[in-house]
Amino acid sequence: MQDMNLLINGYDDNNRFRYLKGVPVHEEYQNYLPRWSYQIRSYLGGLNYKMGRYLTRYVYETESEFTSRLRQTPLDNHVKSIVHIYNSFLFRNEPKRMYGNIDGLPELQAFIKDCDMEGRSWESFMRDVNLMSTVYGHVCCLIDRPETVVGTRAEELEQGIRPYVTMYTPENILDWKWERLPSGHYELQYVKFMEEDVRTQSYSTQYYIRTWTKDTITLQEYDVNKESLEIIEEKPNPIGVIPAVWVYANRSPIRGIGVSDINDIADAQNFLFSLYSEAEQLIRLTNHPTLVKDQQTEATAGAGAIITLGDTTNNDTKPYLLQPNGSNLDAILQTIDQTIKNIDRQAHLGAVRAIETRQMSGVAMQSEFLLLDAKLCEKAKNLELAEEQIWRMWSKWQGINWDGEIKYPMSFHIRDKNLDMDLLQKAAATQRDSATATPDVKQVIDTKVKELLAEDEEELASMIQPQPLQTQMQHPPMTNAADMIKHMREMVEQGYTDEQIKQLHPEIEKFFSNEPQEEI
After folding, report:
1. In sequence order, which ranges of 434-497 are alpha helices (DSSP H)?
2. Contacts by 227-234 with C-beta closer than 8 Å and gap 24+?
3. Exposure pattern of 442-479 as b/e (b: 16+ CB <10 Å)?
4. Sign of the alpha-carbon dihedral angle for 437, 439, 441, 442
5. Tens of pLDDT along 427-473?
6. The whole model's pTM is what?
7. Where are the beta strands (DSSP E) in 112-227?
8. Rounded distance, CA 131 to CA 148, Å?
9. What is the pLDDT of residues 155-200, one digit of tens each?
10. Are the C-beta atoms of residues 2 and 24 closer than 8 Å to each other?
């Protein structure tokens, strides 16, 4: 822990930090804070991103010219697109939640409908947790409960007093400390959050900092004008543990710091932002060349412009146009396309985000789908672990030792259905034209087609139920080998399966046994 100037508002319009002096924070907080600001701006895009001023400033470029170039440069927000694609895959199927011994509690039903006292459902809250942890690398969920002075549980329910959850992003997690127990487990001993601020005019003048330990909960107020930190409330911790749960996108060697999924993608997006600025400048200068003239020459720009030369103007001082070579534009556009492909490769989303036909082999696409499936499974495991810890803390506020279980989907079955359907159609055509075609292959192809068409396992099960036996065909008992061969060929042509043939003709086993055959 060290004293440092605490960043609260990130970058302002002049790319400077806002500080609170003398507030102790974690030693890694100062190192990662600028990166967290960059990551959230990369996700939000729009004005938030442009206020970060992430373009390289030209030599001799004035402040107004740089601001104008920032305003005119578009942002192709790949970070937001990728984060929401991950989120849609993870929550396409809802997790299975077995609440155990808290199932049926009135507080549980109220919490699921409004988990943060702001009207957000538990499902929506976990989606937002996954979004923010993907952007930052980690977030912290604090489970708290309002103080109560009522005497009965009925009065608590009537007043809506129950546990609720709050999500803190890394900029608001000022300090933390874990301690390793003799059992080998790590336990959170101390955490400090920046909770809220009161806005006056253009900047905050008051900030509230809440510190949790296993024994106490302390609320402090920082006054910007006085540069003072004052304790305004201190109370005991009623549950004896800190009800804070870290939700990681990916773990790092530093406890309490996560690794963002969009770290390198945000840098590639910033590179694209610069390329779009270069392309815009090149197009502008090529279409509107610069006019060079002396002070005595009167000229106007644009189509149909008139230039009036002075009487003393000679050939050396005649006005002329400076127009850059626009051939570099093709190179810039090719670099943009290649950078977008690199972003898709890093995110394992080349086949998912493709807006044009790309030359990818079936093996390459399958490998990419497997990598994406593995990445999503790892994220699902982190969310599953975090949610179980949240429910344990929630139950602790209710005085219950939770025994439930949370199960997130671990298989996402990502595949290109159009490509698979084309392959099956080609296989079916080959099967029809082949002289050695067999009903077994046709049945396999039909089953695969049904798997592609079915939306869930229940629909698939109903589609692949055994078909009823055909009754229009007569099935007399077979008495000799010649009749057997002829009748079996007819049944195969009609589409009968092996099991159906055996069911209709149990006497067929006698023809393949060593017993002597007799006329029936």
Report:
1. 439-453, 457-463, 481-493
2. 227/20, 227/21, 227/22, 229/22, 229/23
3. eeebeebbebeeeeeeeeeeeeeeeeeeeeeeebeebe
4. positive
5. 777 766 665 566 667 777 777 777 766 666 666 666 666 555 444 56
6. 0.74
7. 138-144, 164-168, 173-180, 186-200, 203-213, 216-223
8. 33
9. 777 888 899 999 999 999 999 999 998 988 899 999 999 886 544 4
10. yes
Which residue bears the tokens 């100037």?
A: 5
Q: What three-state secondary structure class fits 351? A: coil
Distant-in-sequence contacts of 88-93, Cβ < 8 A, 24+ apart: 89/372, 89/376, 89/412, 89/414, 90/130, 90/376, 90/379, 90/380, 90/383, 90/408, 90/409, 91/123, 91/126, 91/127, 91/130, 92/409, 92/412, 93/409
Count Cβ atoms within 10 A of the Cβ of residue 386 and give its class: 0-12 exposed, 13-18 middle, 19 or more buried: buried
Tokens of 165: 């959850």
Question: Which of 55-69, 85-99, 380-394, 467-481 is least confident?
Answer: 467-481
Amino acid 474 reads Q
Report residue 492's pLDDT band, with 50, 70 and 90 as the boundaries. Answer: confident
Decide: 150 and 156 in contact? Cβ < 8 Å. Answer: yes
- Scanning the structure block, which residue is given the tokens 């540069």? 227
Pick from 422, 427, 433: nearest CA to 445 = 427
C-alpha span between 162 and 398 (Å, rounded): 8
The secondary structure of the chain in percent helix, strand, coil, rounded to multiples of 5, reads: 45, 20, 35
Question: Can you tell me the distance from the alpha carbon of 181 to that of 63, in angstroms, rounded to the nearest whole number?
Answer: 55
Residue 222 tokens, joined: 């920082």
Element (DSSP H or E) covering residue 432: helix 417-433
Strands (E), 249-372: 290-292, 298-299, 307-308, 320-322
What is d(CA 517, CA 478) in angstroms, rounded to the nearest whole number?
11
Longest dimension (CA), the chain: 129
> Which residue type is seen at 8?
I
- DSSP letter at 511 equals H
d(CA 186, CA 48): 37
The first and second tokens of residue 320, run together, are 């002329």
Angle, CA of 363, 367 and 373, to the nearest 5°: 145
